[in-house]
Every structure is written in C-alpha cells, then in structure tokens.
Amino acid sequence: MNIRFSFMRTLALLVIVVLIMLGVYTDFSRLGGSVVSKLSSASSTIVTGISNNAFERGGGSAVELSDVDVSQPTLVSFLAPPAKTLPERDWSVLPPELSAQSVYVVDAQTQTVLLAKNETAQRSIASLTKLMTAYVASRRIPPASDIVISREAVATEGKAGDLVAGESLSFYDTLAALLLPSSNDAAEALAQAVGRDMFVSLMNEETHTFGISDTAFKNPSGLDEEGQYSSAKSVVEIFRRVYEIEPLRQVLSEAVHEARSRDEKIFHRFLTSNWLLGSYPGVIGGKTGFTDEAGQSLIIAWQPPESALIERKDSAPVVFAVVLGSQDRFGDMRTVLNWLVKAYHW
Asked: Domain limits at 266?
C-alpha cells in the first residue's frame, strides 16, 4: 500500500512538473514573439515616426508607449546613436592666430559656424559693399541692358577697371568690372542706371529683408563714409545671397574677364583682385576690399580637398569665410583654410 501511495505521489509530482514546464514554455514563447514583434514595430516606428532632427542630435530614440500593446509583455527599445554630424571639430587643434579684427567662417551646407572672432562688431567693409551693389543690380536691372559709363561715374575716386566716360558695356561686363578689379566707376554706373538715391535705398531695404539689422549703406562702392558699416557675420549672409544668383556666382569664379564696349571700340581685360583664386586649392570665388579706414578685407568661397572628406564626397561642402580689418588678408585667409583642414573632419 505504501509502495502504491509513493508511486502515485511521484507520478502526480511528475505531472505537475510537466504542466509547469509547459506553461513556462508557452509564456516564454508568447513573450519572445511579442518582444520580437514589438522591437520590429518599434524600430519601424522610430525610423518612420521620428524626425531626422532626432538622428542629427545624436541621441537614442525611445518607442512611445502609446504605440505598444501593453496587454502583452514587451520591452522599450533604444536605437544606437547615429553617426556624428559632420563637420566634426578636432579640439586638439588650437584656433589660428590672425591679424584680422573680425573673422567669420561657416559651412554653407549645414550652417555650422566653424570659426568666429568679433563677428558682430560693426566696422567699415570697404569694397565688400559691392556684393550688395551686385545683388541689387541683378534684381533691378534687366540682364539685356546696356550700362552707360557716365562722366560722374568715372570721376569717382579710384581707377580700377579703366572705364571710359561715354562708353556702354553689357550688364554682365559691368558686373565683371564691379566684382573682379572692384571698379568704383562700375558701382556708380550701375546705381545711376536705377537712380543713385533709389539704388542706395534699395541696398538698405534688401539688407533688412535678409534679417540683417547691423548694416547700413551710404554709397554703392564702399568708399569710406560716415554711417556706412556692417559686420563679418552679416557680410557672409550677404555673400550667401549673392552666391545663390548664378550670373553673380559665375563672375566671382572668374580670374580674367575680357569685354568690349558695345560699339567695340574699347577693349577691357578685367583681372580679379582675389589672388587666392587659382593659387590656393579649393578657392572657387571671392571678393576683396580695402580702404584706409576699413583696412584689408577678403571673403571667399572654398571647398575642402577631397582627401579631407569622409562621408560627403558626393556633396562636397562649400565654406564661406571672411576676414575684416586685416593687415594681410591673403596670409590670414591661407592660415584659416590650412587650419580648417586640420581642425575639422569633413
């Protein structure tokens, strides 16, 4: 009897153990399937439901609990942090030493500020003013227009471009005279084509439409005049707007531009004053400026060398860089560009 009782008890215990194991297995399978399903769903939710900004910030993204069926056991998952946003600063490389009083450098593709020094300080910008002159002229003067070079325009201080009173140039050739040798005569001629006072007023109005409030213009050439000023940061913003206009971008990329007066009696060969164009790798455009009050200034568009690019080879960034109040604008800019290659992973 005792043997039979012992056998029955053992059998009962075995049955109970089997039932428990089956229950645990079933719950585990349900849990596992739910977890896999929810993880898959969560990943899909994150990829399709979270904005790209979340990835760009570099943090993990959690699944919203409202997206998960809480009636079933599940897990909240995190995506691994995304790749670092480029350009990435190498902080072991110290900032460069420059003679320029104001400096501002920005990646035009990502709007990342790469270098800044007194970038909001108001100061004279000399012939970088002509960037705004070119912008207004391109918006207000029909491209097919001829520009008459008046005696008043030729009487303006400075002889860059060697324009001749009474000659007419095409609009594009006049822009080349304005932006390459930095002709003050061309600036005045373009302004007179609209009406000088109206033109200067438009320069200020357009600047305000850019959201710039620290800039004022009194003349179209950039000659020193009380009440005419800007900042390194604002000059870069003006340059960015100019660079969006294809004919202006084209002119700024030219080292030499040959032109004839409309009657073909006068020949001009306009040379850029931006000596880095064609001599420093990656410089694809720019504009110089100089007056006694402003000192030397230079703004350039530059692309990092392909050897420095990591993940942006198919869309190489364009960098805008300006130095104001420099004692050696080309030396300062070379220093900035050399530093950018070392200080950033592109």
From this structure: 88-136+193-345
Q: What span, in angstroms and rounded, lies between the C-alpha atoms of 218 and 204? A: 9
pLDDT in tens, 243-286: 999 999 999 999 999 999 999 999 999 999 999 999 999 999 99
DSSP state at residue 216: B
258 C-beta neighbours (distance < 10 Å), count: 11
Structure tokens at 89: 């600063």
Alpha-carbon distance of 243 to 273, in angstroms, equals 18
Residue keyed to tokens 């200080």: 343
Tokens of 57: 């910030």
Other CB atoms within a 10 A radius of the CB of residue 117 amount to 17
Give CA angle at 211 (205, 216), nearest 5°: 50
**Per-residue confidence at 11, pLDDT binned at 50, 70, 90?**
low
CA angle 68, 71, 74 (to 5 degrees): 55
Residues 12 and 46 in one domain: yes
Task: State pLDDT tens for residues 29-59.
Answer: 444 444 444 434 444 333 333 333 332 223 3
Based on the domain organization, do 132 and 244 belong to the same domain? yes
pTM attached to this predicted model: 0.76
Give the per-residue pLDDT at 2: 58
In this structure, the answer to whether residues 324 and 234 fall within a common structural domain is yes
Q: What is the mean pLDDT of residues 290-304?
A: 96
Q: Where are the beta strands (DSSP E) in the chain?
A: 88-89, 102-107, 112-117, 146-148, 168-170, 256-260, 267-271, 283-291, 295-302, 319-326, 344-345
